[in-house]
Backbone:
């Protein structure tokens, strides 16, 4: 071999008890010649090369032993997946409400008698209050004034079936409930007779509106009558159109001197305020000719109205045969908006 001196490096310089820093310095010192060992190993014998490799492996093991040991990375323990049962919501059935019908809906309306002692003579009347009037204390009602015929009293319409008919219409749902007032006019042939109309509009109507739960306007107030009562309905319906939106004339008997004033009365009513009118008469009625004159005045004035000419005379038999039609007609005015 050439004169190359190879300093042996290896474990002989490291003894137990030697600090890792000392060992590292010795290792750095020992590693420097290694960079030239490749060219040297070409000239070394197999034995020398083997010995050198052994020394290097020993030195590498020593360095590894002195290196600070890295703590093992924590091993994450997998969290077992647990399935959580989501409760199934069972929808509760919608509450059902049972509407208990008022017991009064199975009962007829109520009739009362009254008298206004503030008038002279006292103004007597009967009044029909519809089913459930006492129970439905917040409800207000239309009101119909029905006037009886000459020589009769305030029970005439009731005897002819008006109350039983309106009870049936209301309880069967064919009509909205309304109040009926039956004013008495039995003084027709006495000095107080001509003052009936004044007592009705100035005393009785304000009293009814103040005492009972009416709808106190013309659209919810009607007036009708038979014979002489129809004569009063004609006069009051046309002259006090501000009070009445509906007028019924059944077997009309025109009051004295009124026939000549009908045209003037009609002309004074504003077109939007013209009343709803129903007229009927029997073909054997002694008042037929005068009723036809009035109906002709309505046509000339362009007043929309119903006209019915039936078979019959000026009798209770005729009126009782048509009273159901009358009551239904009044009801229709409020049933239809």
Residues:
């Amino acid at each position: 071999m050439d004169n190359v001196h190879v300093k042996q490096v290896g474990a002989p310089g490291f003894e137990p008890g030697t600090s890792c820093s000392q060992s590292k310095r010795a290792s750095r010192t020992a590693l420097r010649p290694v960079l030239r060992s490749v060219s040297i190993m070409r000239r070394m014998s197999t034995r020398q090369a083997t010995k050198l490799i052994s020394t290097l492996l020993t030195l590498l093991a020593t360095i590894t032993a002195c290196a600070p040991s890295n703590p093992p990375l924590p091993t994450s323990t997998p969290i077992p997946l647990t399935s959580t049962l989501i409760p199934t919501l069972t929808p509760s059935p919608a509450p059902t409400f049972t509407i208990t019908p008022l017991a009064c809906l199975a009962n007829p309306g109520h009739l009362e008698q009254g008298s206004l002692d503030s008038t002279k003579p006292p103004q007597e009347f009967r009044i029909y209050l519809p089913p459930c009037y006492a129970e439905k204390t917040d409800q207000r009602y239309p009101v119909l004034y029905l006037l009886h015929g000459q020589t009769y009293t305030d029970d005439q319409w009731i005897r002819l079936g008006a109350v039983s008919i309106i009870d049936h219409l209301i309880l069967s749902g064919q009509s909205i409930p309304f109040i009926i007032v039956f004013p008495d006019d039995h003084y027709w042939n006495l000095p107080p007779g001509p003052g009936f109309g004044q007592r009705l509009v100035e005393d009785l109507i304000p009293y009814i509106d103040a005492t009972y739960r009416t709808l106190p306007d013309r659209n919810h107030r009607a007036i009708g009558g038979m014979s002489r009562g129809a004569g009063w309905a004609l006069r009051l319906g046309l002259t006090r159109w501000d009070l009445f939106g509906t007028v019924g004339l059944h077997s009309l008997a025109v009051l004295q001197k009124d026939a000549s004033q009908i045209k003037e009365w009609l002309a004074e009513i504003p077109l939007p305020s013209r009343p709803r009118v129903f007229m009927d008469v029997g073909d054997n009625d002694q008042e037929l000719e005068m009723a036809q004159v009035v109906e002709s005045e309505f046509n000339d004035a362009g007043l929309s109205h119903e006209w019915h000419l039936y078979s019959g005379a000026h009798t209770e038999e005729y009126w009782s045969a048509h009273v159901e039609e009358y009551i239904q007609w009044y009801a229709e005015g409020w049933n239809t908006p």
